[in-house]
Amino acid sequence: MRTVGGINILMYHQVGEFARVANHRSTYCDHRRFATQMALLASGGYRVLSMDQALACLRGEAPISSRDVVLTFDDGYESFCRYVLPVLQRHGFPAMVYLIAGLLGRRAEWFARDGRETPMLLSAAEVRGLQREGIDFGSHSLSHLKLAHQDDATLRAEVGGSRRMLEDVLGTEVRHFCYPYGSHDLRTIDAVAQAGYATATTCMRAPARPGQDLLALPRKAISQGDNLLGFWWRLHVKNQPRRPLLARPYCGA
């Protein structure tokens, strides 16, 4: 029962109470299952790292244990305050929330394209409140576009503009990025590098290991249907990405 040579960066979206869905299951997690998953991490000897701590490990500046985990939450849903924060505080776990800088306090309108309800996103005031509680924040772009499909000007605005906007909201440096929909290519990664981010995460399924491009780190999506066995399976068995991980030829961890 060992993590295979790396850090499991877990990807969540909404946590709450939802009807069962057939599609987009990785964008929902029942709050009771989330609570039991976090209890398993707490009781099972796992070490939950902040993204900054994970970065130090991946750079070789700190050791990686066999059970290192990072908790990430995409989009920044308002339900985080009610369902996620109390559980994290109960166990003393850090977490990274990736915010869509241009949509704070608005609805996740892209859900409507699939006929789904459009949940509310955290407002700037809620983000600052969570920051005071110790929650970390990164950028999930300016407006949640598939970045690999955008022209260079749009890409710069989505990546660099979102960083500047969030730094104004938070009053601190924003060092971490997450590609919306996992959409990334080498041009996108270069834009993230030029914007000054230290890490960026994808939707590629694998542990994050030293030597990987820090701006194309893999993650493991937690699905609505994952019970504790499924959660354990993702931690310890689902270690092979569906295709090779991207890396800039000149990058170094």
UniProtKB/TrEMBL annotation:
Which residue numbers delimit the NodB homology domain? 67-253
So which domain of life are we looking at?
Bacteria
The UniProt entry's GO biological process terms, in alphabetical order, are: carbohydrate metabolic process
InterPro entries from the xrefs?
A: Glyco_hydro/deAcase_b/a-brl, NODB_dom, Polysacch_Deacetylase
Asked if the Swiss-Prot or TrEMBL record annotates the protein with the keyword Signal, the reply is: yes
Q: Tell me which UniProt keywords the record has, alphabetically.
A: Signal
- Which GO MF terms are attached to this record? hydrolase activity, acting on carbon-nitrogen (but not peptide) bonds
Q: Which Pfam families match?
A: Polysacc_deac_1 (PF01522)
* PANTHER family named in the record: POLY-BETA-1,6-N-ACETYL-D-GLUCOSAMINE N-DEACETYLASE, PTHR34216
Q: What name does this protein carry?
A: Polysaccharide deacetylase family protein
User: Which organism's genome codes for this protein?
Assistant: Parazoarcus communis SWub3 = DSM 12120
